[in-house]
Amino acid sequence: MLHKRIWQFLLIYILGLGFLFGLKYLLGLSDYVIPGPMEIYQTARYNSGRYLVDTANTLSVAFVGHLLAILLASLISIIGRLPNLAGAMIKTAAYNLQAYPIVAVAPIIFILLGDGLTSRLLIAAMICYFPLLLSFIGILTTPVPDIEHFYITTKRMRWQLEVKIRAFENITKLTTVIAGSATLAMVGTIIAEFIGADAGIGYSLRISLYQSDIGKVLVALFFIGIFNSLYLATLEGVGYFIQKKLGISREG
Fold first, then answer.
1. What is the pTM of this model?
2. Which of the residues 59, 113, 127, 236 could staple to 188 if both were Cys, CB 3.0 to 4.6 A apart?
């Protein structure tokens, strides 16, 4: 699974570079606009160490932000599944919050919390929690009649048990959506760093764009893709392990 993810990314990255080089030589663009292969190699040689550390920093923040998003989506969906006023209000509040673009909310976050770790975590969580929330609410509001009927008739049904039954019945969907949302956690962290943070690969990307150094941008994108592929493959592996332990096939 890990090798598959890495090779898929490398193929896409090489095709992207090939497209850029094709434009460069077809249109006769200068190295200032699109650097040549040797310039990119030299850039990678001199900046790989720093970008490796920066991307690892970003991934660590994305990981924690992802966990926060999962916890937040779980809490809201457990309450939001209730067919009462409290459930309706919390779902409405969660949906309305997502209506505001992050570029509009981010400056407020940076003003209140500064440009450090807390702001990066919050923005990462805000960007990736919504697809998690939609999936979790869909799962937790869908009854499993064959199983739930027994506990209801024996008056043993509790909300904790209801949540466990519905989550177990949809464990394949849960692991898939959690793994899929990892990319959004990474994107959210990079956006936070690009907008106003002072660390991480997003911050390095911002400096490279200010310098109009496309070579550094391409090298940074390479590291982002590699680390994102590693993270996705790890989450997919964990999800597959959980399903295997529970005796569930990968097809559900």
1. 0.82
2. 127
